[in-house]
Amino acid sequence: MIQAHEVGHQLQFRNGFPSRRENTARAQELEADGFAGYYMRKPAGYNATWQQAGPAFQFAYQIGDNGVNNPGHHGTPAQRRSATRLGWYLGENNLTVSNFDYYFFYYYDQYVLPATLKMNMDKPADIDNKVHEFILSKVEELRKINSGEMTQEEFEQLED
Ligand SMILES: [Zn+2]
């Protein structure tokens, strides 16, 4: 999990990501967490179960490069959990690096983060229909994680 998070930072550095929003430390950390979740799930990646990945997230998060000491800078623990889980769901698919960046922030910014849930927005043509339907079916869960309504313990016990 830690290695995947760090590889996420390398991909950002090489490609100038995050590209779709303000390139802040917080956005960088959330995307690296998303990338870690993506790689953990990906069949050609680590191919983990959530029973392995959920607790690993907490461990990585406490000893990794970012800790929990500066949530304003790196995102709150709940935001980081939701970023990891969103990446996890995207790991069902084979995305290019730039598509990962595009999809991750599209769903994080448009669906996970906003205070008001809008489910009927027009989907950009370059977002895959199947991915879109799948992620929308998970939005309610992702928002519960992001808002802190779901505890760390509940997060670890989520289904695959
Ligand atoms: Zn980091």
Architecture overview:
The chain has 9 helices and no strands. It has helices spanning 2-15, 25-41, 50-63, 71-74, 77-90, 97-112, 129-136, 139-147, 152-156. The mean pLDDT is 89. It is 63% helix and 0% strand. It has one domain (2-155). The chain starts with a helix and ends with a helix. The relative contact order is 0.16. The protein is mostly helical and 160 residues long. Bound molecules: zinc ion (ZN). Residues 5, 9, 29, 32, 65-66 line the site of zinc ion. Zinc ion is lined by residues 5, 9, 29, 32, 65-66.
How are the secondary structure elements laid out?
Elements: H1 2-15, H2 25-41, H3 50-63, H4 71-74, H5 77-90, H6 97-112, H7 129-136, H8 139-147, H9 152-156
Low-confidence stretches: none
Number of strands: 0
Largest sheet: none
Distance between the termini: 16 Å
Q: What ligands can be seen in this structure?
A: zinc ion
Mean pLDDT, nearest integer? 89
Order of helices and strands: HHHHHHHHH
Beta fraction of the residues?
A: under 5%
Give the domain tally: 1
Helix count equals 9
SS class = mainly alpha
Helix content: 55-70%
How much is the radius of gyration in Å?
14 Å
Shape: globular
